[in-house]
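Cont'd.
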Amino acid sequence: MENSYSVLIIGGGNAGLCAALSAAEHTSDILLVEAAPKPERGGNTKYTRDIRYAHDLDGYTTGEYPDDEFVNDVVRVTNNNTDVDLLKMVVSESRNIPSWLQNKDVLIHRALKGTLHLGRTNLFMFGGGKAMINSYYAAAEKLGIKIEYNTKCTDLEFSGNRVTNASLNGPDGNRTVKVGSVVVASGGLEANLEWLSEYWGSATGNFIVRGTRYNRGELLRVLLRHKTKTIGNLSQFHSVAVDARSPKFDGGIVTRIDSIPYSITVNRDGNRFYDEGEDLWPKRYAIWGRLIAEQPGQLAFSIVDSKAINLFLPTVFEPVRDDTISGLAIKLGISPENLSRTVMEYNQSLKRKCTFNPGILDDCSTSGLAVPKSHWAAPIDSPPFYGYSFRPGITFTYYGVKVNSKGQVLSDDGNPSRNLFAAGEIMSGNILSEGYLAGFGLTIGTVFGITAGKEAVSAAGS
Amino acid sequence: MIEYRREFKTADVEYVSNLCHDCGQCFDVCPYTPPNEFSVDIPKILSEIRTETYRKYATPRKMSLFSGSGIGFTLMLFGFSFLALFVIYLSSGNYLRIFMAISGPGSFYVILSNDILDVAGTLILFFVVLAWSISGKKFLKEVGGHSNIGLYDLIRAFFDSFGEKWFRGGGAGCNYPHRDERGSYKKMITHSLVLYGFLLDFLATTSAFVEQDFFHVLPPYPILSMPVISGITGGVMLIIGASLFLIFDYISSSEKDVSMTPIDRTFLVALLLTAFTGLLVLGFRNTSLMGTLLLIHLSMVSVLFISAPYGKFVHLVYRFISIGQYHLEKRLHGD
């Protein structure tokens, strides 16, 4: 095994592969280490399907998406809490994404109609994120990039503001390699529930990690030890309501349940705790993971009747079903008296006359309840009744390292490292510090991956 | 297709299974295949359901009991056909002709009379078309419900089928024979060889029938004639295509790959032997082996067709209907 590489890439998801393929345009002396075994490679990229990018009229989308609009969208979802220079760079570079993908044999769908309203702003990879990452790996192998699976980087050695060596732990044990430069693209820390429990306490035992079990944030810990400037903190993550029966890891996108706006959602005690109809679901689903995380036992239950069961996407697990509310409560493990009372109070609070319409913010609301339901408040009165149990499902974390526009990691004093770069989820919080914008994680990972890969080659030589 | 439905009936699953060309791409790009906890193996499930539909909609239904592995059934059919042809041969008198070299116009009919071949061939063909039509109608009723596949949908299905459209994996190719290799057109090429090889052989038979019954030119035909040229080309294509399928099946039969079902293999072997014996008859048509080879070849042909409503051959019926149904649904949804 060699013990010296021009460029070391840590992480085998979208950002890592983009960095490796970009670096490979200038050198072939590249090692990519991926913590997962080969069948589970690719981080959370395998659960993605679309990329947001700025564009004029093209064949992949239904209309143009100007830079300004893209920038404004990010500014809005982050509540103006973004590094505008980095954001503008990502947005303008994102225009090159389709041709980059095509060069790597990633197929792109022709313009799609009716896909989550993303048809104008996002392109969809043919076969989804796993097809894309498979194409990237195939391209990397063809270019002679060395790939080691089941391999982690456990430490980095510095000399001044340069990384000189990396400690690797792989199937053949530990070894140290000399490196010209390093790109850290190791993802977020959402699968490291032990670390998250430093903030969340024992609640993390009830969290479900939607993506890969290998995003453990270990490189972030390494960088923290070496006095790197960080952004965000342990309390922050993106999470949604997922079926409580979901696998602890890797349930992916299918375990999310979209019943909430057409239901009442109660906690373990049978009490409602938040306005289920506050806004259109695409604007609200991402707050529910956190809401549930704050409930006793990190559990919540969504109750719908037979009128509402077909209003949302079918679920991967069958709902619990009963002809009475108290029967349903017993099956779900909630107090039947409390749930019956909550349903009764809710039904009595409904407006007599309103026009139920799932497509818009309709005028069906409750009145006089401590926790209101502002829209789509229809009576729960037509058996059979259905119940879903929820847990918080973490998608990704925001905690990461501060970078500049070359992707260079900054140290505590604000100076950039000469040859240490970051790309992907470990730095996306620089731009997406809070909130969510569909397909934008891949945009940041792709642009910063390509940039960091290129810069890493020139930094390795100097 | 899936995006047009919220609930799935059994018939919907049967429809999707038969629409599936077993391209293998979904296995490679789905995040839920093993080792994921959901451990979904779509190609394997669809393959099982496809085989199940062939049994469920067989005409007559009882005959489907024979198609377990298909091999016993096929061997029995072969024995039966050979015996029947041999009895017909014997019944016409001279017991030793089969061991003699015969040549010149009508030499085949010295072994078996033209009339008997015409009648038997027509009856078998009629039986196949009838059984396929009834099975297809039963399938369509379950799958299509009250909707009506129109001429437009059938034309689209025709071009999809003969253009081998769905073996292209939407441009990415099929992950074949190994599921984890890059997409390629190997499966499309292999299937095309079998499909067009078969059609050329069918053309050979039909053109021979036309030459003899309408122009009164009796076989054997010269090398440079429609029946012989299309017969040789088709036969060679069939042999290559069917062998490739079997070779790919053999090298892909590791744990992570989908292997063929037994009825797939039986059908391919039957096709292979039919084509091979056909070429043997051509090659030895002026020798004393001709009589025996002709009986064997014609027995293979009848095996292929009599088993057509029960073995893998029937896939073309359900697949064609499913593609038609797909185009209907696409049209109704304005896509």
